[in-house]
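Hi all, posting the design record for the shared folder.

TITLE: backbone redesign
STEP: 1 of 1
STRUCTURE INPUT:
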């Protein structure tokens, strides 16, 4: 999450964020969940752009000053990135049953950095 936040500034792309997250997660022996992603936030909770936890550098929407986004790395301990609903239909679990974690911050994109709005 911290590495993704460093890429969240005007002029970078959503692919820059996703690529940074996936490269770090995989270098640590984990897998990013690809079925869920971060997003823009505004009048609605989930808005465009989608901010995947993987991607190609310099691809996707370019971030703009004043944009509000949520970066949400979801990391699995197993090799299978696919997920399914839990029996209650509310939660999620990995297809291979491996442990997983979800982190999230909401932030304001600025010219040279971002302002994290979900930290004390």
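Okay, here is what came back for every position:
SEQUENCE:
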């Amino acid at each position: 999450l911290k590495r993704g936040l460093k890429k969240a500034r005007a002029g970078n792309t959503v692919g820059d964020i996703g690529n940074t997250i996936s490269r770090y997660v995989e270098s640590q022996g984990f897998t990013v969940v690809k079925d869920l992603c971060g997003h823009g936030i505004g009048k609605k909770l989930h808005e465009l752009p989608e901010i995947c936890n993987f991607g190609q550098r310099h691809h996707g929407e370019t971030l703009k000053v004043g944009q509000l986004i949520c970066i949400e790395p979801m990391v699995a301990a197993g090799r299978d990135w696919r997920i399914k609903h839990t029996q209650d239909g509310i939660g999620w679990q990995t297809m291979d049953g491996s442990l997983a974690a979800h982190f999230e911050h909401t932030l304001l994109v600025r010219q040279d950095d971002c302002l994290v709005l979900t930290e004390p």
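COMMENT: The chain has one domain: 2-116.
Let me know if anyone wants the other runs.
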